[in-house]
Design a protein that fits this description.
Layout lengths: L9 E5 L2 H13 L3 E5 L8 H8 L3 E3 L13 E4 L8 H8 L4 E2 L1 H8 L4 E5 L4 H12 L6 E5 L5 H5 L7 E5 L2 H5 L8 E4 L7 H4 L2 H9 L10 E5 L3 H8 L4 E5 L9 E4 L2 E4 L2 E5 L9 H13 L4 H8 L10 E6 L2 E5 L6 H8 L6 E5 L12 H6 L1 E6 L4 H10 L5 E3 L3 H11 L5 E4 L12 H14 L1
Amino acid sequence: MKKVNYVNKSVLIMGIAKSGFAAAKLLKSMGANVTVNDREEVANNPKAIELQEAGFTVVGGGHPLELLNGIDLIVKNPGIPYHNELLVEAEKRNIPIVTEVEIAGEISEAPFIAITGSNGKTTTTTLIGELLSGTSLNPIVAGNIGTVVCEVAADATPNQTLVTELSSFQLQGTIHFHPHISVLLNIYEAHLDYHGSKDAYAQAKARIFANQTAYDYAVYNADDDLVSSFAEASEATLIPFSTTKNLEHGVGILDGWVVFKEENIIKVADLSMKQNIENTLAAVAVAKLSGVSNEKIHSELTNFHGVKHRLQFVGEVSGRKFFNDSKATNSIATKKALDSFDEPVILLAGGLDRGNGFDDLIPYFQSKVKHLITFGQTAHKLKDTASMAGLNSVTVVDNVEKAVATAYDLSETGDVVLLSPACASWDQFKTFEERGDIFIEAMHRL
């Protein structure tokens, strides 16, 4: 761990959860005076109780402004919005506000590979971790994907590499964070309730490039104009990827091959995860920049079937391929999933009604979906949207289990059965993971 002077600095940890808990312990070990604050009462929060018993000052039940007195730095939970009254006042007082990713970047002896995007970042991060595994880079996968970054950064050594999935919430709270290789996959309109506008959301994503130099690399989606504009404004060495363009200095597809700087890497036909081609191209760019051999890349890409619940290939039954994309909790993600297939698709969709419409799915109902099987609170809203699109092959069922059985009965050899709900899961399930697991179990029963 790099020596960074936090001795006697007064730090406020705002929001405990996993990141706040890890940051509090780390900063106290570095000599900081740490106060931990959470909106939940201490007595109801096991992590708060644990910190209190370890000697931390813990304030629960809200975010009183007097906590700011004498504070040098705020490390906030990524999910707490900046319009929170305490944070607004902190900005007026010019108190720096960061997320634990900033602390991790300060102390880590290992270089960072950082991945972000509106869609596909978990799959890409996981795939990069697999491509780098067993090499001299000794990857540690962390960030929004599960393990708190500052927790692993504290013990990371120079001969390791931190492969980190980062959200817009995490990136907005960075100041000097400096990845050696950054990846920006795409930018769609998302999290407007947090960021306030698409522009603010996009600017948060673009912070992944902010501190890179010509000795660093920016891997970016050349098919996304907004992503390209951010990358091209950076100082990093640019490595574009594209599914449509022949890129002399990047990664693309040519004559049936995935190509890196005009070098054939792997045949597209050999990829086990053809439905996530953009994520694959980005991961290949990182692997080649990191010195991974073509043999290793070929081995991993012919055996990687995706991340569970994220356009995950589950299996094949009587010539029908089943894909679990339960993580698709909005229509943007479902459109992305449908774009991944040329085969006829039996789409399983529906769930919690958040009051939004599905008109943006109309072109996909017209061109991509062979039959819609819908369930949950939004079932009839999705059916009405399909009717507007001229898709009359619609079946309403009670739940995901019945949807799988119905899909099998209605499908033919060569069809794709895709669970991509375009809705949150909370009307019938505790989590999208539970919904996806039920889909998988139902498929295996076939």
